Amino acid sequence: AAYSVLHLGVFAAVGIAFSWLGGRVESTPAFGARAAGVLVLLEVLFLGTAGMASDWVLQELGWLTVFVANVLAVGAMGAWIWPASDHGLGPSEADATRSTSVMTGSVFSPQILRIVSSSKPRCSTVVSQSRAMVWLGEVLGATPRRRSPRDPQFMRTRALIAGMVLSTGTLAAQELRPGFVDPEPVLRAAAEAIGTDRLRCVTISGSGYTGMVGQQRLNGYEVDWPRGEPLANYTRTMDWEAETMVEEFDREPGRNPASWKYGLGWRGGTPLQASSRQRFVVKGLHGWHVDGPGGEAVAARPEDVERWQLDLWLNPHGFLKAAMKPGANPRGVWRWELGEMGRDGATTEPDKVTVVSITVLDKYRVDATINSEHLLQRIHTWVPDPVLGDMNYEHEFTNASYVDVGDGVRFPTGWHHHEGWDDNFQAQSINAGHNAFGGTFADVQPNRCDNPATVPNHVRRASFPIRVTTEELAPGVWLLGGASHNSVAVEFADYVAVVEAPLDEARNLAVIDEVARLVPDKPIRFLVNTHQHHDHIGGLRTYMHIGATIVTHWKNYDFYVRDVLNFAPRTLSPDMVSLWPPTELAEGYQYETVRENHWLNDGSRTMHISYVQPLAHVEGMLVAYLPGERLLIEADLFDWMGPRNTWPVTATAAGESLYRHVRRLELDVETIVPIHGQPVPWAEFVRLVGSGG
Questions:
Q1: pLDDT at 46 over 50
Q2: Which residues contact 687 (CB under 8 A, 6 or more apart)?
Q3: Model-level pTM?
Q4: Across all residues in the chain, what is the average pLDDT?
Q5: CA separation for the pair 34, 544 (Å, rounded)
Q6: How distant, in Å, are the alpha carbons of 131, 133, 140, 158 from that of 3?
Q7: b or e along 160-189 (b: 16 or more beta carbons within 10 Å of the residue's beta carbon)?
Q8: What is the residue-wise DSSP string for 511-528?
Q9: Pairing relationship of beta strands 680-681 and 549-553 according to DSSP bridges
């Protein structure tokens, strides 16, 4: 009711004003220039106000509505000038129709306008509002005498009025749907509460922890991602204007890939971290890492760069700045939240919060939970992952962690980051890994962003082509390399078996094409999976897509069928299975599980698949042995990425377990074929283990 009264009053006022203005201009031509200047200024102010108002109400349709209204007005001018006789209308009918055309901003001919004005309610509402404006002006005596439509002065006056009135009849306020709230006041209050407009950049320092996402020993109840080495002397500088983030820290070398920062991105088979001091930089579309002071900048892979750039905005000030960007399209909802006990203590009183979502990097829908104190306590989105698909990705901040750093700026010092659902009790998934990064960064220096990063030329030019190299290890046995991870193809009488589907779909599609070239007339019937670390299973779905049966240890089965090989949509990076889901996913006959030993045999060639244990590295590890060729195919138990004929000086604990496993099963091995690196003579491996063999 209030809206209707206000609406009527506005249209009455506008009708009177413009009717009076039209008459004044017609009677006093000299007044026209001044009126035009004022009206142009008012139009600019009105369009800006209308655009913002409509953006609040209509979200993504708001500015489009105002733009369309302007286009309609231009058409209205032409429709008014267009002679009535050209349309077969009588003078009074044409005059009435033109009046409606001008006031509504219609680009249609009078015949079409008559149809529109009598059809859909939304169109007729605009027409009715415009007629009401003119009618109110006439009733109140402000409408000038009617002139001939052919009168040039009359035509100029009507065109001027049409240009000013165009948006008034088109911008229609719409009420929010139930459950939704206007996000603008919420964002404005949050920005004011933490001083976002007074923070251009920030540097934070402290100590942090890391989670090795995808490197869990097994998937199970309350099994988190394994912790990596602590991040000492950690420093992060975030410059939102330059879209740059620099992270530096000290970490014990020799234990993880140099390209891995924390969380996602672990790729075995790549160079290990050699120095303690590490530096990771993202600037716009480019990212790189530096292993040690004075080290060479090594370009980061595109998927890592995009995730690092996303992290620049997944903090309270970054989110609020991103919400102000064009295309952010904020939307708001509300809910009652009962804080989790681990984060907020024994909470018994729910807090009414607002959840505002925006679009970041033109791709990611990011939502922030803003509490009654106008503080952002959770910032959440999803990121693509070859194994888990659209993967939960969030940061959490407690109220107590926000500190005042001067000039009205507040910034959180406690960071807690999840990759994967915080699902210890397996309500949604078998995998319970989630803690990927966090720490206390109490040294907060606002607006300190010295030494802006410059993208090295070789980083700017870097590319990551997919390359598959083929080495025949024996007749019908090929090592498919060319990347950090290998696969091995073995030809049988009627089919091909492939050992390992690492990394991602793109890599495995290239490998599958190469297998089809080598053995064009036989299907890939089996995919033998060594273990469930994520950098080794990113292609399982690809092999299921082509119809292969997955052979794996039984301890991996629940994780695979529930979390990995499923029908769940993948919206951020769709793969073959999500786009063309095979029937076999629901049937369940595309799996063969191994407990101790398993054989593939065609009468002439045999593959013996066996379970290796005990291992601290991972549970459910399989190796594949070809007795006829005396080849042992294994992953992560003994890797060698160096040149051939130059071997490491010692074996690891996992290598010793492999040695005992081979001796226990009395396997006659001549060559080890690692998934990471080059084939190694068994004799050299025995020498490293330190046993007589």
A1: yes
A2: 647
A3: 0.76
A4: 83
A5: 74
A6: 19, 17, 23, 29
A7: bbbbbbbbbbbbeeeeeeeeeeebeebbee
A8: HHHHHHHHSTTS-EEEEE
A9: unpaired
